[in-house]
Amino acid sequence: MSSVALNFETDIIIIGSGFAGLAAAIEAAEAGASVQVLEKMMAPGGNSIISDGGIAAPGTSYQEAAGISDSPELMYQDMIAAGQGLNYPDLVKTVTEGAREAFLWSRDYLGVKYKNRVDIFGGHSVARCYTPEDVSGSALIKRQLVRLKELHVPIRLGIFVESLIQDEGRVTGVRLIEGYRYSKPGHEIQQTLTAAKAVIVASGGFGSDVAFRQAQDPRLGSSMLSTNKPFATAEILKECIRIGANPIQLSHIQLGPWTSPDEIGFGAGPLFGDYVVLPYGLILDPETCNRFVNELTDRSLLAEAILRRKHPVIGITDEAGVHTAGWDLSRPLAKGVVKTYDTLDELAEAYGMDPSTSKAAVERFNCSIESGIDEDFQKPILKEAGPLNRPPFYAMRIWPKVHHTMGGVQIDTSARVIHRDQYPIPGLYAAGEVTGGVHGACRLGSCAITECLVMGRIAGRKAAI
Ligand SMILES: Cc1cc2nc3c(=O)[nH]c(=O)nc-3n(C[C@H](O)[C@H](O)[C@H](O)COP(=O)(O)OP(=O)(O)OC[C@H]3O[C@@H](n4cnc5c(N)ncnc54)[C@H](O)[C@@H]3O)c2cc1C
Question: Is 227 in the pocket of ligand 1 (CB under 6 A)?
């Protein structure tokens, strides 16, 4: 590896090409700054591009049409409740107050096409989540890339940022490796890039960094699978900490409580687990053949309840539930992750459950749906939910996977990175999953993309001043 002296300069360097980094790049370029986005992989998009693209926002026309009353204040209360009060209130306020505008920015300014529906996920008190037509974060990434091309902002791929450079405390650039190949090392050149205005860190979470995540939560060793891409690692977070950034709440790592142990990665199962079972179905423990949890509680409580069973559990719904949910399950069915059964007896037998006990559990759940009150676990019964009695019955094994890292560097509402001595580090901004404080102990579904867009755009605007 050869070392080359300082050879290029820009106003703003952005580390990472996910939702947060690209949102920051658009705003900074719109404000007139020269910008370079550095991405270690050979394709842009990070975890963002494999996400479902679901974004949460209150006070939209979709909610109005569905007769849903919502507000930034209600979304704030939901996020604080799920976060167990550990969220930084001013950051939650910034995100919830900016949520509607960020959603409209993605739709009207960037041109992302959303489905004409609004969904509820566990822990939200009302439906406020919007999904792109193709149920993929790639819809947003593609539109962000189109806009950046129009703005002549280069996305430099295969550039691994090794370290931040400081001059009398101010962050003035990065040391990087050009020609980086994640799976094929050998042709790298070391370079230096200086930033006249600022460096924005948007390097994502550390869900795939087994050593780093296990140091925060010893349960999350290599036997725990992850929904993340394998390169979601902590090197830039550690570099920020090295220069004095305050790391906050790193041990709050979210497990997705709707993933299948019968496939790797995020897979096809969550579409059934998260979007169909949790709102319209039930989860049984195959050992007791009974329910054990409010399926619509937040992700943290649900994942912990499943982990306590010490074995995969069974998510179940019927044809009516699938129809009401209105999602195309052909992928999880074709993969064999979700299976169908003509009767509840057959379903029970397939998962080694006692048929009469499991059928009694389904019947008791059906009574809760009909009365509108779940006396056992206080699951909110949605008005369009019906009893599970129309075959075929659908089922999937569920076991949590590492999904999101709530902790990261401390930032303020201007996206400035805060030093451990509680002052902003000059020249350093951050946004997205590499930061901590917005979600506290638990992120609600669809709130990460809202956060990435709101805080990424703020970082870009502020850094360009
Ligand atoms: C499968 C899946 C589904 C999800 N679905 C949703 C959803 O529907 N709604 C929702 O709100 N949230 C969802 N999430 C969470 C959400 O997608 C992420 O929190 C969000 O995309 C993170 O965006 P980001 O810009 O912070 O980071 P990322 O999108 O991960 O981008 C970070 C980028 O930085 C690059 N990078 C890192 N280190 C370096 C380095 N040293 N040098 C150069 N580049 C570097 C990475 O390669 C990566 O491309 C999902 C997450 C996953 C994994």
Answer: yes
Confidence (pTM): 0.95
Q: What is the pLDDT of residue 189?
A: 86
* Closest C-alpha residue for ligand 1 atom 41: 161
CB within 8 A of 360, min separation 6: which ones? none
Give pLDDT < 70 ranges for the chain: 1-7, 185-187
Per-residue pLDDT at 186:
67
302/249 Cα distance (integer angstroms): 20
Q: Say how far apart CA 369 and CA 302 lie, in whole Å.
A: 20
In the reported structure, the alpha carbon of residue 449 is separated from the centroid of ligand 1 by a whole-number distance in angstroms of: 9
Distance (angstroms) between ligand 1 centre and the Cα of 47 equals 3
Q: Which of 13, 17, 48, 446 to mutate to test the pocket of ligand 1 (most atoms within 8 A of CB)?
A: 48
Q: Is the C-beta atom of 19 inside 6 A of ligand 1?
A: yes
**Which residue's CA is minimally distant from atom 15 of ligand 1?**
448
Helix (H) or strand (E) holding 283: strand 282-284
Residue 176's pLDDT is 95
* Cβ atoms 55, 102 nearer than 8 A: yes
- DSSP codes of every residue in 333-374: HHHTSSEEESSHHHHHHHTT--HHHHHHHHHHHHHHHHHT--
Catalytic site residue from 100, 143, 299, 443: 299
Q: What is the pLDDT of residue 1?
A: 33
What distance in angstroms lies between residue 123's CA and the mean position of ligand 1's atoms? 22
Instruction: Please say whether the beta carbons of 136 and 51 come within 8 A.
Output: yes
CA 17–ligand 1 middle distance (angstroms): 9
The DSSP 8-state label assigned to residue 246 in this structure reads P
**181 given a catalytic annotation:** no
Q: Which domains, and CATH codes, for the chain?
A: 1-254+403-465 (3.50.50.60), 258-399 (3.90.700.10)
Q: Are 11 and 35 within 8 A, CB to CB?
A: yes
What is the rounded distance in angstroms from the CA atom of residue 5 to the CA atom of residue 218? 41
Question: Does residue 253 contact residue 213 with C-beta atoms inside 8 Å?
Answer: yes
